[in-house]
Amino acid sequence: MTFLFYLFAAAGTIVFQTSITEYFHAWTSARPDAMLLVTLYIGMRRGSEGGLITGFILGLLQDILSGGLLGANSLSKGLSGYLTGGLVRNIARRNWFFLVALVFFATAFNVLLWAALSLLFQPDLGISAGYWLASLKTIALNAVLAPFIIHLLGRIESRLVPSSLGVPYPDRP
Description:
By secondary structure, this protein is an all-alpha fold. It has helices spanning 2-28, 34-66, 72-87, 96-121, 129-160. It is globular and about 55 Å long.
């Protein structure tokens, strides 16, 4: 049942990323990275391995759907999920300020790593100033939306996944 929830969360993320983020783009000229937000959520709930696998799969799907540099998003999102899963083990994750700061720095890490990979594998294209401006807006938008989306996913998971499954893997003694 837990696997099905994460599968539906990933499918919902793809739908959200391809359709609803257009409204954000119309208002702010930037799109939130919903796939990164779900990757960070699963990394917080299931640990480093869950964040790594989710980030890799969602990043690969994002690479395929966007037609960009294949593997750049999968690597950056996979590493972001892995690092997030490792960080939250010792930190209170229900604090909204922590969620905002975590998503802010994870999105910044994702943007910088993607830019470095793009420059490494496509040096002739370069990175424009518009990319950096849109990335700053995406970082801010992800940080603002993070507490709401993570809380919403947590509520949905707590209602769909039976409590008999117990505490998720990273929190077990």
